[in-house]
Design brief:
alpha/beta, single chain, D-Maltodextrin-Binding Protein, domain 2, 2 domains
């Protein structure tokens, strides 16, 4: 009896000191987060930002660059956990293959304001070219040309099909295929001289920082619906790491934010990790929304941990 009382007393004392209290174990099995990314500027820098937040929370991170096909396969095999660049409908074929298997899923849209469409400088838009249907009214001013990027690109094919089918009365127009850099050089020359130019533009991209541009309406729908970018996780990851999964559920950016990331990383040729660190330090209000209710790996409040790191 005395022995039982002694044990009972000891348990009460230990509980009083909190020794047996529940300690938050955020990543009990493995605190490494495996990110996959395609080497598109926007996806690359976005992945670095998310990975840096994860590191500040105490996780180890690994980033693997690969094609979309390899990324989806690696999510299936468990070699990757997260992919932040699922452009739909562009990547629909590969995504559907693995979604139907029940091995991956979209967590949420992380970027809504995505556009790939014919664009013009703002001064051309204000002069009356607000729609693809307006282009041929001013054919001479445009030199009957629409500038595109690399041959075989989806956008080039869309414009060439419009020319071949006389959509928007473009049958006498030509597609000037080039490269992204070549096309933007042409836009720069036109803007410098206040000349008229129509080109295949998209956002997020640093062209939206370099130039004041407008995207034309497309009443015939040749460009299809504007895409969205989703966060993808392998099935089962939510149960394995519910803490970081909550971050994924709350991680979303705007096109202006990503435009600036891309401008710093690609246009200014800066280290993406440095860009991520600087942006996080200067935008804790946004980061706090991403990590609301998310803890560090040692169980502390995530936003306080991140603030301590960036302010030291």
């Amino acid at each position: 009896m005395n022995k039982i009382k002694l044990i009972s007393t000891l348990l009460i004392v230990l509980l009083g000191f909190g020794i047996f209290a529940a300690v938050p174990q955020v990543a009990a099995q493995d605190d490494t987060i495996n990110f996959g990314y395609v080497q598109w500027p926007g996806v690359t820098i976005k992945t670095h930002v998310a990975a840096k937040v994860a590191e500040y929370l105490g996780y180890k991170t690994k980033m693997t660059a690969a094609s979309e096909a390899i990324i989806f396969k690696s999510l299936e095999t468990g070699d990757l956990d997260v992919f932040l660049g699922n452009w739909l409908p562009t990547m629909q074929m590969h995504f559907n293959e693995y979604q139907k298997k029940g091995v991956i899923h979209n967590v949420r849209v992380n970027l809504h304001d995505v556009v790939y469409r014919t664009a013009v400088p703002e001064y051309v838009y204000e002069a009356g070219v607000k729609s693809m249907a307006d282009l041929n009214k001013y054919a001479d001013k445009f030199g009957r040309k629409i500038y595109g990027i690399e041959p075989g690109n989806d956008g080039n094919i869309i414009i060439q099909d419009a020319i071949d089918n006389n959509t928007y009365n473009l049958s006498e127009w030509t597609l000037q295929a080039s490269s992204t850099a070549g096309m933007l050089s042409s836009v720069q020359r036109a803007v410098n001289n206040k000349e008229w130019i129509a080109f295949n533009g998209w956002k997020p991209h640093y062209m939206n920082v370099m130039f004041d541009i407008k995207y034309l309406k497309d009443p015939e729908g040749i460009w299809g619906e504007d895409p969205s970018v989703y966060t993808v996780a392998r099935n089962g990851y939510q149960d394995e790491n519910p803490n970081f999964y909550k971050f994924l559920e709350q991680f979303t950016v705007t096109a202006p934010i990503q435009n600036n990331w891309i401008n710093e990383y690609q246009n200014k040729d800066r280290d993406p990790e440095v860009v991520a660190e600087e942006w996080i330090a200067n935008n804790l209000d946004v980061v706090n929304q991403w990590v609301f209710g998310v803890n560090s790996t040692d169980g502390r409040m995530g936003r306080k941990v991140i603030a301590e790191i960036v302010n030291n």
